[in-house]
Amino acid sequence: MNGNQRLRVFLCHSKDDKLKIRKLYNRLIADNFDVWLDEVKLMPGQDWDLEIKKAVRNSDTVVVCISSSSITKEGYIQKEIRFALDVADEKPEGTIFLIPARLEVCNVPDRISRFQWVNLFEKSGYSKLKESLDLRMDDLNIRFNSKEVSPNDFEDKVRIPVLGVIDSRLPLPEIKPSFETDYYKDEESIEIARSLMLIQENGTKLFALEVRGNGLAEAMIYEGDMVVMKPYTLKNTRNGDMVAIWLPRMHETSLKFYFKEKDKHRLQPANPEMKPIYVSLDEPLDVKGKVVMIIRKVQS
User: Fold this and answer.
1) In terms of domains, do 113 and 176 share one?
2) pLDDT, tens digit, 9 for 90 and up, residues 130-177
3) φ and ψ at 234, to 5 degrees?
4) Shortest CA distance to 255 belongs to which of 201, 207, 292, 283?
5) Is the pLDDT of residue 33 over 80?
6) Could you count the other beta carbons within 10 Å of the beta carbon of residue 254?
7) How far apart, in whole angstroms, are the C-alpha atoms of residue 46 and residue 257?
8) So what's the pLDDT on residue 91?
9) pLDDT tens for residues 223-233?
10) Are residues 44 and 103 in the same domain?
11) Is 1 buried (19+), middle (13-18) or exposed (0-12) by CB count in 10 A?
12) Most buried by CB count within 10 Å: which residue of 1, 4, 116, 127?
């Protein structure tokens, strides 16, 4: 294992806990983990049982999210836990593979109680979970840290143009086909280690936008953060993609998870406590780009 990929995290959960799970998923995605969530990853026509088992086996860590309802209710989550335990038994002793995560005050099932759990409902809960995931990254020699975004040598870097700002109150900058010519203007570009890019991305045609204001906080993206994007249109946007959209009727820019439903588009906020936006199929919807990476502004 090397630093050319992100830590793969599988979220095992009950369907009754979807709202809390979406919030956890969005926080993990914002922190650059590769997260497997059924409603995002499963595609129509796939054998969902086969895909879930494949995802568990291919994951570096499985986070078992438990609540009062999930531990007492019959359902597929019980099968997922059994399979995750089987995979955990194949790992070397001391491996952080299965992490029980309590979503509320509840009992931890006996079969996974030997693993130290984390209370996500506590203020420090998510930080503790992230510490465990960081330890797993160290164990696998995976590096995906904001301090390591800047490469050390010319051969290992991708230069990405910064085309402007993204602000909920402003239209998105115009994305011109020739923007690649701006790659080598140092004052208008950022450099990212090539090893941190997803395998399917090699830096070509990527662009970055600096976040202004806190109007995008629902996506857990804040003032000073940088979003790296690839040009996208509504035509090639798939369900579950996080995309940058200009909504003419609302006169605002929005980062949302996109889903196409039978007779409308659904724009799902990253914050599960916020309601989705529904757009009719004949209403203008200007998709500008798909988010492929978020670079946090780290306060020293």
Assistant:
1) no
2) 999 988 887 776 655 444 444 455 556 778 888 878 876 666 666 554
3) -60, -35
4) 292
5) yes
6) 20
7) 21
8) 80
9) 778 888 888 88
10) yes
11) exposed
12) 4
> What CATH number has the domain bearing residue 72?
3.40.50.10140
Q: How far is CA 27 from the centre of its chain?
A: 7
| Mean of per-residue pLDDT scores for the chain | 78
Residues 6+ apart with CB under 8 A from 263: 280, 281
Same domain, 185 and 286: yes
**Residues 41 and 134 reside in one and the same domain:** yes
Tens-place pLDDT, residues 177-190: 444 444 444 447 77
Domain with 129 in it:
8-140
pLDDT for the residue 189: 79
Distance CA 225, CA 223 (A): 6
